[in-house]
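Minutes, project huddle
Topic: does the predicted pose make sense with hexanoyl-coenzyme A bound?
PN asked that the exact inputs be recorded in the minutes so nobody has to dig through chat later. Recorded below.
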Amino acid sequence: MQFNNLLVQKENNLAILTINRPAALNALNADTLHELGQAIQMLTEDQEVKVIILTGAGEKAFVAGADIAFMQQLDPIAARQFALTGQMVFNQIESCPKPVIAAINGYALGGGCELAMACDIRIASEKAKFGQPEVNLGVIPGFAGTQRLARLVGKGKAKELIFTGDMIDAQEAYQIGLINQIVPHDQLMDQTKKMGLKIASKALVAVQLAKRAINEGLEMPLEQANYHEANYFGLCFATNDQKEGMAAFLAKRPPQFQGK
Ligand code: HXC
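Predicted holo structure (tokens), as shared on screen:
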């Protein structure tokens, strides 16, 4: 599939999805969101792909937000629809069975920060900068930033960042739990691929069920979530990889997982 605003590369069991509008710091317009949805769908169905890495083209930005020039001409109904469309695509990323890792190479602002938060894991260059600057434009986050930021860093810090519009550096983002790791800028892709390959080497169904158990469980009361976890735990025993993993451990040899 050919895209105007995205690049898709595959290597080993990884897919690298790059938002490619560097002249606009990879800002998200409706076309780019639409393509992102299509690409995630395509990679979800691609049996060769076990882990997806999401990054931004160029040296400066992961994604500098929703496209302000595009948003400027929207009426309230169209603006609401734009927010809902973005939320739908970001939900698709969050519920994609395959782990999605954000490799944050620069600015992750507004919709860019929201996109990173929809990913499972966030690895950032030391040069990355984060923020929800929507109040500077007379609006609020609309791609679920009010919700995902509060869930990731807590209500107080989320309100501070969203009310002030302040930008924070990678160090502060790490301290508040917004990102998983900071790496030197020139090692960002190597380190992200390393984590991606490590995850890809594990029992595929187990990783996918773990993602579901965490995401779905967080929306449930604890007792129900724990029961849900036990059901998925039981389901793992329907896979060859469970038999192989446990047999390999007891035989003191490395496992040979088949992904089923
Ligand atoms: C459209 C953007 C853009 C954006 C940058 N550009 N961000 N275009 N939408 N979000 C464009 C600039 O207009 C400029 O185009 C080019 O990219 C380079 O940007 P500069 O501003 O010249 O670069 P620099 O001085 O280095 O500043 C970088 C920056 C700044 C700090 C990231 O660009 C900035 O503040 N951008 C806006 C960030 C923002 O407010 N994001 C939140 C958007 S609201 P030209 O043609 O002049 O070269 C949002 C809502 C989400 O995301 C929810 C929607 C429902």
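Observations noted during the meeting:
- Residues 24-25, 27, 64-69, 82-83, 86, 107, 109-111, 133-134, 137, 141-143 surround hexanoyl-coenzyme A (CB under 6 Å).
- Residues 204-250 form a domain with the Lyase 2-enoyl-coa Hydratase; Chain  A, domain 2 fold (CATH 1.10.12.10).
No decisions taken; revisit at the next huddle.
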